Amino acid sequence: MEKLTIGTPLVEASALIWIAEKQGFFNENHLDVSIRIYETGKFAVEDMINNKIDLGLSAVFVIGNKVSENPDLRILGVLTVSDIQAFLLRKEKNIRTINDLKGKKIGVTPNTSAEYALETVLYFNQISLKNVKIVNDIPSKLNERFISGELDAILMWEPNIYRTLSKIGDNGFILNDINMPLIYQTLSGKKANLEEKKEAVERFVKALDQAEKFLNSNPEQSKLIIKSRISSTSEYIEYVWSKHQFNLSLPQNFLILLENQLKWSNLKKNPSIKKIPHLLNYFDFSFLESVDRKKIMIIR
Q1: Measuring CA to CA, how many Å separate 288 from each of 2, 112, 291?
Q2: All domains of the chain, ordered by start, with CATH?
Q3: Whole-number Å distance between alpha carbons of 234 and 63
Q4: For residues 5 and 54, is the Cβ–Cβ distance under 8 A?
Q5: Of the candidates 43, 30, 26, 245, the residue with the CA atom closest to the CA atom of residue 18
Q6: What is the Cα–Cα distance from 296 to 20, expressed in whole angstroms?
Q7: What is the dihedral of CA 40, 44, 49, 54, to 10 degrees?
Q8: pTM higher than 0.90
Q9: Which residues share a beta bridge with 190?
Q10: Angle at 93 between CA 87 and CA 94, to 5 degrees
C-alpha cells in the first residue's frame, strides 16, 4: 500500500474524494490515502507547494494566483464544476436588477473568486467600480453585516449563501439571471513529486474515476455519504446538489477561465505585467489519459 496525502476543504465539491474514501476505492487501488482537511483550498495548495502534502484540491482561482511564482505546479484535472456564487440582496433595498446596484454597498471577500466574479459581472453590465461602494471583509463578517442591514448586497458562495438566507428569511433573496463565473474544483501537484509517485497518483485518479461512476449510478447513496462526511444536512445537500457537476475532466472552458483570472490577478497586483505564462505547460495530462483520453477537452 503506497501512501499519498491529499489536502482539501471540507465541502461537497470534494464529493469524489469522499466517495472514493467511503467505498474503499483507494484501498482497492492499493493506496493508503491520508486526507488532510483545510479551511480553504488556498491553504491546501500552499502546503502542497511546500512539500507538506502530495496533492491539493482547490478552486481554479487559487491556481491562477500561484502559477507565476511556482513553475513546477501541475494541474491534473477538475473534479467538480460548480455554479455556487451569487449576489445576495435585501428586499427593502429596492434592488431588482443588476443596474439597481449602482450607488449600493456591496460586500465581497478580496483576493477570492468572488472578487473576480464581482468585477467581471459589473464590467460586462457596464457598471463602473466607481458607481458602487465596495466593502471588503471575510465571509463570516460580511454575512453579519448583511444580516444587520449595513450592506445592501454581498457576492458570496455556498454554503455561506444558504446559511445567510436561513438566518435572514424572507428579507433576503438571490439575484437571478446573472451569468456568474463557474468554480472549478481543481486537483494539482508538484512536478517532481508527481514524477516520483507517478504510478500511485495514476491509481489515485483511477479511484476518483470509480467514484464518479458510483455517484452517477447511486446519487441518493452518494448524497448520504457526502452529508455525513462534511457534517451537513439533507436539506442543504438537496438544495445545492443541482449546482454541481461531479465530473473528472479537463474542459476547455477551464483553461479559458484560468487565463482570464490570471490576467485579472496580474492587473490587480501590477498593471505593468502584460504577459502571462504559457498555461499548457502547467498541465500534466498523463493522469487523466491513463483513465480516459475523452475526459480531456482542452485543445493542445
Answers
A1: 20, 27, 5
A2: 2-82+183-295 (3.40.190.10), 85-174 (3.40.190.10)
A3: 31
A4: yes
A5: 26
A6: 21
A7: -160
A8: yes
A9: 73
A10: 90
In sequence order, the 6+-apart residues with CB closer than 8 A to the CB of 51 are 190, 193
DSSP state of 250: B
Query: Is a pLDDT exceeding 80 seen at residue 270?
Result: no
For residues 250 and 255, give the distance between their C-alpha atoms in angstroms, rounded to a whole number: 8
Give the Cα separation of 141 and 130 in Å (integer): 23
Write the single-letter amino acid at 295. Answer: K
Give residue-wise pLDDT tens across range 141-173: 999 999 999 999 999 999 999 999 999 988 899
* Grid cell in block for residue 173: 433573496
Q: Which residues of 262-298 are buried (b: 16+ CB within 10 A; e: fewer)?
A: bebbbeeeeeeeeebeebeebbbbebbebbeeebbeb
Radius of gyration of the chain from its Cα atoms, rounded to whole angstroms:
20
- Cβ-contact 99, 70 below 8 angstroms: no
